[in-house]
Amino acid sequence: MSRVVLVVACALVDADGRVLIAQRPSGKDMEGLWEFPGGKMEPGERPEESLIRELAEELSITVKEACLAPLTFASHSYSNFHLLMPLYICRRWEGTVTAREHKALKWVRPKDLRDYPMPPADLPLIPVLRDLL
Question: What number of H helices and E strands is found in the chain?
Fold first, then answer.
């Protein structure tokens, strides 16, 4: 049985209905692939707390818990672990989105998300976003 890794992710949506994706940095697993920002949950953290912390660390933005709405989740088996990833949607934050850990950031229309190579766990999230937005 493989270990379960809990990761939390966010679909940040701008005023034009575009979604933010971030390119994984060099030297990390799946480098160069595009993903929804977020990260691993620390022991004792609730998913919302993890996401607020990760968005501050990765993107230099402040998100209030009331602005995070759970949307869907991904459950995907990789070769050495099983990923469980709740996806939240957020339309309001403070500060300017800045890439602090990723190679690049892009605002993308939901219908165009498939044009960007993503980790396998992120792919099933795209139709949900497309239908919502």
Answer: 2, 7
Q: Fold for 4-132, please state it.
A: Nucleoside Triphosphate Pyrophosphohydrolase (3.90.79)
| CA triple 88-64-53, angle to 5 deg | 75
- Domain borders along the chain are 4-132
8 Å CB contact between 55 and 39: no
pLDDT in tens, the chain (133 residues): 689 999 999 999 999 999 999 999 999 889 999 999 999 999 999 999 999 999 999 999 999 999 999 999 999 999 999 999 999 999 999 999 999 999 999 999 999 999 999 999 999 999 999 999 9
* Calpha distance 52→79 (Å, rounded): 29
CA distance 41 to 8: 7
pTM above 0.85, yes or no: yes
> Cα-flanking dihedrals φ and ψ of residue 38, to 5°?
155, -155
CB 10 within 8 A of CB 56: no
